[in-house]
Specification:
With about 325 residues, the chain is of the alpha/beta class. About 35% of the residues lie in helices and about 25% in strands.
């Protein structure tokens, strides 16, 4: 059974493994540095559907089906699916996954959802509440712009701090035992709000939450950054990464040599006009479920901390002048 280490961290006891995963992305992402690692790409960002929202549902369903196929499983082999996205009432997840017939628990962690769904799947599996779970999330540039900023037809200019919402989805299958990447510990993040109100500066809104969760983890476990091959945040981008490293160094913790960010990995920020980098649930979801897990299975990465970061805002809260609370959840992984 899972047990607590310190105040915020959960230790898993029953050899929970990510046995298979899959990632699907759109055109811009397929032109980036990680193109060869994705399971499926498309030059049509509507993926044959008649709306951006339906396209995002297609992304989730396809990612889950690809991961099941790679694991030689079908939907009847899954006890529970944890899924979420950025849209109101998580409609990408509910409409995309409704035909699979898998018991469903919707999640909203904004861009932290990949880590949140893995955390929930891990605890369910470790505690024998389920034998096998799926964790999945998605985002779509056009559906996110329509909901949180301006429809594309508006033609508004993006600020230098803005990030490009990734069109993509990632799906991971977890079970007890077997071959795959092991989930060792989980640190559930605390909400952190530094008063940022600019919806075009997600990195600044989320970096304090990432810093808090990382400090909580190292405080609970007494681990050292040098023990890890990679400390990976979800989608802080260039602005958020700079702030994160500064916040941690102010607390006496240096992770710069070990740190990278999915929002800086998925695009070539010098040549793809994404300003501060990538963002969205599908950013960390697609990078983690492709490049990171493949590198870990090949033992090119052996110990990894994955910290997905989310901005817990809504269109209504922004219109009412509210600040943007952040949260970050941490997953400790090993390839053995």
């Amino acid at each position: 059974m899972p047990k607590r280490i310190g105040k915020y961290t959960i230790q898993l006891e029953n050899d929970v493994r990510i046995i298979e995963s899959a990632a699907i992305v759109g055109k811009k992402e397929s032109e980036g540095p990680l193109s060869n690692y994705f399971d499926k790409t498309s030059s049509d960002d509507k993926f044959g559907e008649d709306s951006w929202e339906k396209a995002e549902s297609f992304l989730q369903k396809t990612a889950v089906e690809l991961s099941l196929k790679k694991a030689n499983l079908d939907s009847n082999d899954i006890d529970c699916i944890f899924a979420g996205d950025l849209l109101n009432q998580c409609i990408s997840s509910t409409f995309g996954l409704r035909a699979l017939g898998i018991p469903f628990l919707g999640q909203y962690g904004a861009c932290s959802t990949m880590a949140q769904t893995i955390a929930m799947s891990s605890v369910f599996t470790d505690s024998f509440a389920a034998d096998r779970c799926v964790a999945v999330t998605s985002s779509h540039f056009c559906s996110a712009e329509r909901q949180f900023r301006f429809p594309l037809e508006y033609g508004g200019q993006r600020t230098p701090t803005a990030q490009w919402t990734v069109t993509g989805a990632g799906s991971a299958i977890l079970q007890r035992g077997g071959d795959g990447v092991k989930v060792n510990r989980i640190t559930i993040g605390r909400i952190n709000d530094m008063g940022i109100k600019d919806a075009n500066n997600m990195g600044a809104a989320m970096a304090p939450a990432a810093a808090q969760t990382i400090l909580d983890y190292f405080g609970d476990t007494k681990e050292k950054p040098d023990s890890f091959d990679l400390i990976l945040t979800g989608d802080l981008g260039m602005v958020g990464r700079t702030l994160l490293l500064e916040l941690l160094e102010n607390e006496g913790l240096k992770i710069g040599e070990k740190h990278n960010d999915c929002g800086l990995m998925i695009f070539d920020i010098d040549n793809q006009d994404v300003h501060a980098g990538g963002s969205g649930c599908g950013c960390s979801g697609s990078v983690f479920c492709s490049y990171i897990l493949q590198k870990m299975k090949a033992h090119e990465l052996n110990r990894v901390l994955f910290i997905a970061t989310g901005a817990l805002m809504s269109p209504t809260s922004s219109q009412q002048g509210e600040s943007i609370p952040g949260v970050a959840h941490l997953i400790e992984l090993s390839s053995t």
